[in-house]
Amino acid sequence: MLLHLSISQFTLVDQLELEFGPGTSALTGETGAGKSITLDALGLALGDRGSADLVRTGANRADIHATFDIGGHPEAAAWLEEQEMDAGSEVILRRVIGADGRSRAYINGQPVTLLQLRALGEQLIDIHSQHEHQSLLKKDTHRRLLDEYGEAQELAAETRIHFKTWQDRYRRYQTLAESAEETEARRALLQYQLEELEQLDLQAGEIESLESEQRQLANAGEILSGSYQLAAMLSGGEGDIAEHLHRALQLLTAMPEQSPALSEVAQMLDSARIQVDEAASTLSRHIDGFEMDPERLAEVEERLSAIYQTARKHRVQPEQLPDLQAQLQAELEEIGAPDALDKMASECEALEASYRKVAARLGKCRKEAAKRLADAVNQQLADLAMPHARVELALHPLEKPAASGLEEVEILIATNPGQPPRPLGKVASGGELSRVSLAIQVVTAQTSRTPTLVFDEVDVGIGGATGEVVGRLLRQLGESRDGRGGQVICVTHLAQVAARAHRQYLVEKHADGDSAFVSLRELKEEQRREEVARMLGGEPTAQSLAHAGEMLERT
């Protein structure tokens, strides 16, 4: 329920603070006073598109706050919790539009996108406007109204999902079918290339290991010759490194007195002697175990040659061959087995059957709801001075299945007895279309889950006794809806509608020098009587004031 609306620097509004409560609130004023400005501002707070020309001339920005009580609205509370914006039983929607046209949106003080603002706003307020008279001529609107009335939105959404899944798979099947010959050739090539790579069976790190082994085997003669020379230098007899170290140690030991420096030298020379002995032993074992293996060298070089040749063939580096194999395998799996086309055709048939099953359930639901909705609308039309009009919701089978289902929904009407029902646009006049639209909106609003209903001049083209009926209907919607308290806000030019409201607000336009501004205030009892009298016939007279008093007393 809308509790508070704050509007600042918006079009002709300088500053407005409005408090709303349960029941029906009527916004009235002279033609051109700006009655719809309040609803336009509310629409911005709910996520409508904004522009720089909405900012009051000379101001830096327009700022709109709308505060809602969601204590009795678990769906909105759950949505806020999912978005991590839970703030108790109240939620504040804010919209700021700069003079440069830039827009910012907030929910409970947190920046959000317009999509998020709109998603929450649609759960809080349902706006019915006079422009819906024209949208009522569109068959898409007929289907939407019927699905909402029959509570078939989830089933309709499920139908759309099934249709999309089926069509996506079917398009994939058609693509593969059209290129079946090319696909088969590609499959054969991939299988050949994979067999070649599988036979190669290149292991991780194998290339580096083979190249190291190849270098060692190819230089075996030089390595062995160098090893012998090194062994002779280390401990090969007279004049080797070991002998020189031994003589150096003897010379140090023969000295009569050793300084700390000489003692340190002796320790280092002794350590070097030990290291040389260990090196000589290790080198000796290396020489004893070293083998010249021309056959192994040939094997290694043949293996490396096969790897290099395969890499050149596929135009990749040798170490990239395992990745290439994985890529080819993935592509082969994507193409599928030779019978993949047949399997995909079977899948498409199964998906189509699933779609048709859900769509048939949707069609059955629509058929049942169409009769109920038509009866309810016809009852309202009788109250709206169209007793002979008969509305019918026709379900025409579609030639091709669609995301919306297997049938097209169309509202037909016969305005006179004995006439067959025909499309709205070909039968109803402007005034009749307004009343049909209002009847449908009132009927569908009764099953609406949103706590606040807004009617923006939906009574255009209606007057007299019919206006009394409209006022009564809107008051009933504001008092209770499905056993719940309701809230209705309506912009109206009819005294009969305004008099039926629980409270009334007067919108006035003022001129101040070269500028104009709009104000809005709630009317007290006597003020309200004067405004209803003005709505009845211009300047209030004793007679119109008395009539207005009678109308207000009837509420």
Gyration radius, in Å: 45 Å
The biggest beta sheet reads: 6 strands, antiparallel
Give the count of helical stretches. Answer: 20
Look at the helices and sheets and give the structural class.
alpha/beta
Round the mean pLDDT to the nearest integer and report it: 85
Strand order of the largest sheet: 2-1-4-5-6-7
- Gross geometry: elongated
> What fraction of residues sit in β-strands?
15-25%
Task: List how many beta strands DSSP finds.
Answer: 15
Low-confidence runs of at least 5 consecutive residues? none
Which percent range fits the helix content? 55-70%
End-to-end C-alpha gap: 23 Å
How does this structure look, described?
This protein is α/β, with parallel strands linked by helices and 555 residues long. It is 56% helix and 19% strand. It is built from 20 helices and 15 strands. The protein has helices spanning 35-45, 74-82, 114-124, 132-135, 139-149, 153-178, 180-200, 206-218, 220-235, 241-254, 260-289, 294-314, 321-335, 340-383, 424-427, 430-445, 464-479, 495-500, 525-537, 542-553; strands at residues 2-10, 13-19, 23-28, 61-69, 90-98, 103-107, 110-112, 125-129, 390-402, 405-414, 422-423, 452-456, 487-491, 503-512, 515-522. The strands form 3 sheets. The chain has a 6-stranded antiparallel beta sheet with strand order 2-1-4-5-6-7, covered by helices on one side. It has a 6-stranded mixed beta sheet with strand order 8-12-13-3-14-15. It has a 3-stranded antiparallel beta sheet with strand order 9-10-11. The longest helix is centred in the middle third of the chain and has 44 residues, at 340-383. It is elongated, with a radius of gyration of 45 Å. The two termini are 23 Å apart. InterPro entries: DNA_recomb/repair_RecN (IPR004604), P-loop_NTPase (IPR027417), RecF/RecN/SMC_N (IPR003395).
